[in-house]
UniProtKB/TrEMBL annotation:
Keywords: Heme, Iron, Membrane, Metal-binding, Monooxygenase, Oxidoreductase, Transmembrane, Transmembrane helix. The keyword Disulfide bond does not apply. Pfam families: p450. Pathway: Secondary metabolite biosynthesis; terpenoid biosynthesis. One of its GO terms (molecular function) is heme binding. This is Cytochrome P450. It comes from Paxillus involutus ATCC 200175. Heme binds at residue 472. It comes from the Eukaryota. It is found in: Membrane. The keyword Cytoplasm does not apply. GO terms for cellular component: membrane. Its main location: membrane.
Length: 534
């Protein structure tokens, strides 16, 4: 049946797409030759790349930081890693570039009517209600929970070592994900998921391999089918959740489960006699009630934020931490330097009369923070973002490019509806921003300030948390959580790469996940050798 639907869409929409591609003005922009006359353009090779970003890095080397690719049905897409263009798209033009249809409708499949897929007008409303839950003061109150659950994780790993031997090769990803879910449960919803205790919540089951099942290496029919979404009336999207294939079923099953969990959590809050709850959901509900009725979030929108937070706030951080521990394993001398730095900070805290580090102590861990930034630079969990110009516009470039006809240009006129793809992974490795060693590990770049001159993204000039008014609302949350967890783990354990023979892949499942070559059927994993610090 799905093939019939796809063929029908192809017949109707290929001519439309072809006509649209004629209107565009990007023909003179250089880019990789199209693999064939294929209707898929470059989409298939980008989505199937063995290592996320490798193609983009190669294209930046060949064409400069702004280049053109073909999307399905011959439509041109403009890719950019140019800092000025990114600043223009994400900051200067404010809401002038909306999220493209395919990511928006895909997000709705697993996060309903949440902030992540809201239109510009609705986004301001969502963000105003959610902001009070993500202030610095609010987040600092979460630190004891971050520390307690990091220490619980550490105890679990110690137990592994006792059962096994003094060192052990451990897949660190699942327990990191259990810990980040438990953290989110407590600080966001005042709820105990008990994932680290091995409790099988229906949510953890329905989240397991959600993105790899739904988005990793999509079949050609799905890529072509999704491309038709750019041309169909919006009421058709309502039916996507009923598509019977695994790609769509996994998302709609998750959304149903998340909504069930969300209803339970909201009921707990509203029946709670303690109205001054300090968790994210309580603050969101209180902030919503203070709003004028016209601007309030509906019940469905609140459930959707919960479904989104459960995804956006846990595995993103768990995978990012898995990469962080991978980098720490590859660089034992940096690992030791982190340990020494924590020791000094602890001694200072003790001399002051504090039992433990306080939030401002984490800001003084200059090298540890530089390591976190460097890992976020090389391993951005969201590798690119697709935006659509809401009107005709002219994009400024800080790095001029040479067109096919040999002209050197500093700006690119674009048509309304043009897809502009921000390559987060390519920007994060741009030599003009990060220096000649941009492809290699060097946390020191964040200590001499050389990497942080331009202020493109919300954090450390990185695009990893995006930029502008739709940037990650949880970036401070994620950083404080990583600081607390990394200090606990590096103080307690020594990390090494396992013996040679394991090749780690950054796979593209909508988000960038760690897997092991030739063991992809085992799912997301990061195997590291751990032992207790002597
Ligand atoms: C290392 C961890 C994280 C990374 C790399 C990350 C990255 C991102 C990125 C790139 C976006 C923009 C997506 C887009 O425009 O389509 C985003 C949005 C968002 N993130 Fe995060 N995130 C992380 C952790 C978190 C955490 C811990 C939370 C919540 C507790 C969170 C909640 C959100 C929300 C609600 C949005 C939507 C914001 C909006 O549209 O205004 N994220 N994140």
């Amino acid at each position: 049946m799905i093939y019939g639907v796809v063929i029908l869409f192809l017949v109707i929409f290929v001519p439309l797409a072809w006509r649209r591609s004629r209107r565009q003005s990007l023909k003179d922009i250089q880019g990789p030759p199209c693999p064939s006359l294929s209707l898929l353009g470059h989409e298939k090779i980008i989505l199937a790349a063995e290592q996320v970003g490798d193609l983009e890095f190669q294209w930046v080397r060949e064409y400069g930081p702004t280049w053109r690719t073909k999307q399905c049905y011959g439509v041109d897409a403009l890719w950019t890693a140019d800092p000025r263009t990114l600043q223009y798209v994400f900051h200067t033009s404010s809401y002038g570039f909306s999220k493209a249809v395919i990511p928006t409708e895909t997000i709705k499949l697993f996060a309903g009517q949440s902030i992540l897929s809201a239109s510009a007008h609705d986004h301001q409303r969502h963000r105003k209600v959610m902001n009070p839950a993500f202030t610095v003061a609010q987040l600092r109150t979460f630190l004891p929970v971050f520390r307690r659950l990091a220490s619980k994780l550490s105890q679990k790993w110690k137990d592994h070592l006792q059962v096994d031997s003094s060192s052990h090769i451990l897949n660190v990803h699942p327990t990191l994900a259990h810990m980040t879910l438990d953290i989110l449960g407590e600080v966001a919803f005042d709820h105990q998921f008990g994932a680290l205790d091995g409790k099988e919540h229906e949510l953890t089951k329905s989240f397991h391999n959600l993105f790899t099942d739904s988005m990793l290496h999509p079949p050609s029919w799905d890529i072509l089918f999704k491309a038709t979404w750019n041309y169909i009336p919006s009421f058709c999207f309502y039916f996507l959740k009923y598509l019977p294939t695994k790609e769509y079923k996994r998302f709609s099953d998750y959304l149903r489960t998340a909504f069930r969990t969300a209803k339970g959590l909201v009921n707990e809050k509203t029946s709670d006699s303690n109205e001054g709850g300090k968790d994210i959901l309580s603050i969101l509900i209180q902030s919503n009630l203070k709003e004028d009725g016209r601007y309030r979030l509906s019940e469905e929108e609140i459930f959707s934020q919960i479904a989104l937070l459960l995804v956006a706030g846990h595995d993103t951080t768990a995978c990012t931490m898995a990469w962080l521990l991978y980098e720490v394993s590859r660089h034992p001398e940096d690992q030791q330097r982190i340990r020494d730095e924590i020791r000094v900070a602890r001694a200072r805290a003790k001399a002051r009369g504090d039992d433990d580090l306080i939030p401002s102590d984490y800001d003084t861990l200059a090298f540890t923070n530089a390591v976190i930034k460097e890992s976020l630079r090389l391993h951005p969990i969201v590798p690119y973002l697709v935006r659509k110009a809401d009107r005709e516009d002219v994009l400024p470039l800080s790095i001029p490019i040479t067109t096919k006809s040999g002209e050197v240009i500093k700006e690119i006129p674009i048509a309304k509806g043009q897809h502009v793809i921000a390559s987060i992974c390519a920007y994060n490795r741009l030599k003009s921003v990060w220096g000649e060693d941009a492809d290699t590990w060097n946390p020191m770049r964040f200590l001499d300030g050389s990497g942080e001159r331009m202020n493109v993204g919300v954090f450390a000039n990185l695009m990893t948390f995006s930029a502008g008014n739709r940037a990650c609302i949880g970036w401070r949350f994620a950083i404080l959580e990583m600081q607390a967890v990394l200090t606990e783990l590096v103080e307690t354990f020594s990390f090494e790469l396992p013996p040679a023979g394991m090749e780690y892949l950054r796979v593209n499942a909508g988000v960038m996940l760690p897997m092991i070559k030739d063991k992809m059927e085992e799912g997301v994993q990061m195997r590291l050798k751990i032992s207790l610090v002597a």
